[in-house]
Amino acid sequence: MSFYNPPIENRNPEEHLLMDFNESPLPPPPKLIAKIAAFLNKHIHYYPIYGDLLERLGEYAKVPTENLLLTNGSDQAIDVILRCLLESSEEVAMVQPGFAMFQQVAGTLGCQVVGPQFPEDFDFPHEELKESVNRRTRLIVVINPNNPTGTSVSVEQIEDLLKTFPDIPILVDEAYYEFSGQTCVSLLSSYPNLIIIRTFSKALALPSLRLGYVIAQPDFILQLLKIRGPYDVNLVAVLAAREQLNHPGHWQKVVRHLMDESKPALEKYFGERQVKYYSSTANFLLVEPQNVAEVSEFLKENKILVRTMNPPIAHTFRMSLRMMPEMQHFMEVYSRYLNT
Ligand SMILES: Cc1ncc(COP(=O)(O)O)c(C=O)c1O
Known about the structure:
Aspartate Aminotransferase, domain 2, 7-stranded mixed beta sheet, 4-stranded antiparallel beta sheet, binds pyridoxal-5'-phosphate, Aspartate Aminotransferase, domain 1, alpha/beta, about 350 residues, about 15% strand
């Protein structure tokens, strides 16, 4: 197998308008940066002391602390969960295409990710996913909303999976929860096979600090603790996360701006020009232009980076939402492309 190598090296925030990694368009407030600077000045030579972050996170996620595990990005959540559950030759059922880390980690364990493809309209193929479950299936993964298609899955559909397969763990990846507003946390007390993962990398704007978390039954969290190292989560991430949870005004405003202003403006723009896009409940859109290679090259020449996709959706690109002035710049450049 090859390593997971996202096209990140040649991007430059000083030079490019970055619409390729679903990041927040704005950094956290200066107060947060000042807290980190104060910490760096004094404390980096000590091992991390995590303090009350789990309590704060419990209030935020509306679960007791024993249901929570912090991880080094939700990438590590995927890693520890799959390592905990899977043995060689077992299968993960997941609709494809989904987030690539699942394939990557499953591959290192000698396991395969199988499951139906999204249909042409990218609606969630609920029945087909159920049909793909077989005696080798050791885990079902639902990414809600899905990256890269933006597809959302209803709580009812997730509950149906939990009921239909009570003996199979079901991992729901809610990386984009703050944008979609949809969560299945309320199902946790009724379905012991439910595992949820989330991240501070998207709406909470801390991807370079690497912080994610698992929400699951306390006995499963105890198993995961055997795999995750005691200091895998760095303290700068924890300080920043606490600050973001204690002062949510800034990032929540950005989320509302993206979802209530940037997204409708972009959809209107594409709609009026017959550029095909797919509906999304996340901070990105999947777009299907007439000629994806040409468009993405034109955008790149104009210092705008979007993410072109691999087969079977190589005819699309994914673009992250940004604040309105940047969206307007994107639309101006796109219009120049359409008029060429
Ligand atoms: C669906 C999904 N899950 C998980 C992740 C991993 O995020 P991180 O490791 O930064 O928490 C991403 C990142 O793009 C994602 O799109």
